[in-house]
Amino acid sequence: MNAHPIHDTEIFAELAAMVREGRPGVLATVIAAAHSTPRSTGSKMIVHADGSVTGSIGGGKGEKLVMEKAPEVLADGVCRRVDLDLAGEQGICGGSMEVFLEPVLREYPCLVIGAGHLGRALLELGRTLPLRFTLVDDRSEYLAPWEAESGVRALEREPGALGNDGIVPVGGAVILASRGHELDSAYLEAYLKAERDLGQRAAYVGVVGSRAKARRIRRDLESRAPACAERLAQVRMPVGLDLGDEAPAEIALSIFAEILAVLRGVEPLRDETGEALGYSLRARRSSKGGK
Question: For the whole prediction, is pTM greater than 0.70?
């Protein structure tokens, strides 16, 4: 039995980096070892989404089998136990190992602009989801409750000071939910400028509000920031799916349902104009006198 497995500190440091950077993978831990085996109980290895590994559980066919099982664990997010019979391995005297595979699922970065009642609802629900939050507001008193929260980066910024210091949640989501169309418009302009300056993009950008508000913001920014016109056309307004209620918690649920669908490559239902299907169906029913 090998008495010198890779130090756990390397594994733990890599796990912390994966969570911080939103990189998925699978942690494989030897939970039982019998007879002659290349690694002892407690030995660990990480299989990354690209197939590369950190650490080792001994190489050979056992490690190869674990690497083959890892994509299944990542795909469904369900832990597995794998029995490895090492009989016949060169240099191995017929030992066996039991390995526990657990997913390290990706956490997506999410920028929420606006710490009012809807911003609070978004973060309260969002803490149960695979998301890492940056919360921006221009009022320090609204940010104070979140400054001690783990997993929330709270920034006091006016639109003109939004800046480029990691503000773009690359591959993640942006939700604008500040107070009023003028402030949302200013923040959206500043955010789109940051994307353009950095050459980085979020996978999802959405603005909370009515269709009338959406039209006004688009009109304002098309006139004021023509360089952002192409990207502006991709911004989702109104944001979220229509659940038929206006309570902050349910609005937050509708927004995250749409965001997670987009981030995972499943396009939520939208009509031919790109509007959430629930909104357009509701409008059509209203125009016909239905409920």
Answer: no
